[in-house]
Amino acid sequence: MLKWIRNYYVGEDVKNPGRARARIIVGKFVPGVYVVTLSDNPGNVLEILSTAELMQRTVRMICPPVVGIANGREGAIRMVQEIVEEVFRETGDLKIREYLENR
Fold it and tell me: Which residue of 10, 53, 77, 92 sits 20 to 30 Å from the alpha carbon of 37, by its own alpha carbon?
């Protein structure tokens, strides 16, 4: 089961984000939509996954918490950049995981 942070980010160009989230939760493919997640890898902070990857039950089961959904890979990359900038602007630090978990 996918975990979502409270107040997750939604890309500006995601059409009908509620429907997209519902489809992602049940394991359906949402064309062109990517999710940004916290990373389980200590060397990374955030990861970008396609909804095609989330169709696999095992991936959904071990997927770290979702912090945002975006339209297209480029949109997901922009979202990661915006998250990092927001965290630095608000805290003066780059403790992204702590910021997102307590947001």
Answer: 92
Mapping DSSP onto H, E and C, the string for the chain reads CCCEEEEEEECCCCCCHHHHHHHHHCCCCCCCEEEEEECCCCCCCEEEEECCHHHCHHHHHHCCCEEEEEEHHHHHHHHHHHHHHHHHHHHCCCCHHHHHHCC
102 pLDDT band, cuts 50/70/90, is confident
Say what the pLDDT of residue 103 is.
81
How far is C-alpha 51 from the geometric centre of its chain's CA atoms? 11
Domain ranges of the chain: 4-101
Q: What's the predicted TM-score (pTM) here?
A: 0.91
Q: Does the pLDDT at position 49 exceed 90?
A: yes
